[in-house]
């Protein structure tokens, strides 16, 4: 990439975010960042006119950010791809593993394998072959048509895609230290239309999941319950959120059933992980995405999960201007994916 610079591009449903990092020094340095409202229906559409609008919005944002390169790393939405940790494989050589992954993927990919690109990472492999040896693999299947759509949008925006990866892989890179001393962490990425989950331990993603519940659902239930326009409902959500002592608790009681859907899924993730990985118990939860800043949300998750819960800070491994620290700390959860994309080394 030009001058050791990397652009991380997160094309979300409600906004498009960019982070530009320099990798010239030992610690990556933030050069610029920015965001812009995403056109609707945006990247979820298949219509050329809608995708053209996305490309134009990206071009506008890139012009504002002024990166010294056109090379970009882009993230794919978790809700549109298929991931699975495959635990039940025997000891396999590298040559054998490729074929075994194709067979394993047929069990969880709801479309012909020929229509997806398969990627995998070996999480564990027994040192020798015997009756008890096994291989554990993290598998990602990305639809070829989805990848083609993203490449088309980027090309129209005059960008050069150098890598594509999942949003959760990117978020785990920016939010979780890959040190062996870093606690096993559950990342909850609260987006506009979905909430994505990833369990990360020692730099390895051990479990992922995505559900169709996000910030838009919260805004709509406020609008319906209080007879608000969506804009007013969004403002009430941002100001009062899950604060039980505000508005006589009315907003809290309105939002609680939807937030509980996310909490219940988090509990299922924790239980599923700890059943398979008794030596890697989850010690921490990190909330990222725009929805992470809902007032009262950190405390609500803490009370219901019984774990340490914190808002995302993707700048821990990045050198930033001291004058921007307070501002970037507030915006951190929004940039977890784009910062993680820009942190990609290869």
Automatic annotation (TrEMBL):
<dbReference type="InterPro" id="IPR050696">
    <property type="entry name" value="FtsA/MreB"/>
</dbReference>
<dbReference type="InterPro" id="IPR043129">
    <property type="entry name" value="ATPase_NBD"/>
</dbReference>
<dbReference type="GO" id="GO:0051301">
    <property type="term" value="P:cell division"/>
</dbReference>
<dbReference type="InterPro" id="IPR005883">
    <property type="entry name" value="PilM"/>
</dbReference>
<dbReference type="Pfam" id="PF11104">
    <property type="entry name" value="PilM_2"/>
</dbReference>
<feature type="domain" description="SHS2">
    <location>
        <begin position="6"/>
        <end position="175"/>
    </location>
</feature>
<protein>
    <recommendedName>
        <fullName>SHS2 domain-containing protein</fullName>
    </recommendedName>
</protein>
<dbReference type="InterPro" id="IPR003494">
    <property type="entry name" value="SHS2_FtsA"/>
</dbReference>
């Amino acid at each position: 990439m030009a001058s050791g610079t990397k652009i991380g591009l997160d094309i979300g449903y409600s906004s498009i975010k960019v982070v530009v990092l320099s990798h010239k020094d030992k610690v990556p340095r933030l050069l610029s960042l920015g965001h812009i409202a995403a056109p609707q229906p945006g990247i979820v559409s298949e219509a050329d006119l809608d995708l053209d609008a996305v490309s134009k919005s990206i071009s506008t944002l890139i012009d504002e950010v002024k990166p010294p390169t056109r090379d970009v790393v882009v993230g794919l939405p978790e809700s549109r791809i298929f991931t699975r940790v495959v635990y039940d494989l025997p000891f396999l050589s590298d040559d054998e593993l490729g074929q075994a992954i194709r067979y394993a993927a047929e069990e969880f990919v709801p479309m012909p394998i020929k229509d997806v690109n398969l990627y995998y990472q070996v999480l564990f492999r027994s040192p020798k072959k015997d009756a008890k040896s096994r291989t554990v693999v993290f598998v990602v299947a990305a639809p070829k048509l989805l990848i083609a759509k993203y490449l088309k949008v980027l090309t129209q925006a005059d960008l050069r895609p150098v890598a594509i990866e999942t949003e959760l892989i990117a978020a785990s890179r920016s939010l979780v230290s890959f040190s062996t001393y870093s606690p096993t962490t559950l990342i909850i990425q609260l987006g506009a239309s979905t909430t994505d989950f990833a369990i990360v331990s020692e730099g390895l993603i051990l479990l992922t999941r995505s559900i169709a519940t996000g910030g838009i659902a919260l805004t709509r239930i406020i609008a319906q319950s209080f007879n608000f326009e969506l804009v007013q409902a969004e403002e009430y959500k941002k100001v009062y959120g899950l604060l039980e002592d505000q508005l006589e608790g009315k907003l809290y009681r309105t939002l609680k059933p939807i937030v509980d859907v996310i909490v219940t899924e988090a509990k299922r993730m924790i239980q599923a992980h700890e059943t398979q990985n008794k030596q890697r118990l989850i010690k921490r939860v990190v909330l990222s995405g725009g929805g992470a800043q809902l007032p009262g949300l950190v405390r609500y998750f803490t009370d219901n999960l019984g774990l340490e819960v914190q808002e995302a800070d993707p700048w821990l491994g990045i050198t930033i201007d001291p004058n921007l620290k307070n501002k970037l700390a507030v915006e951190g959860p929004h940039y977890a994916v784009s910062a993680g994309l820009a942190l990609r080394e290869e």
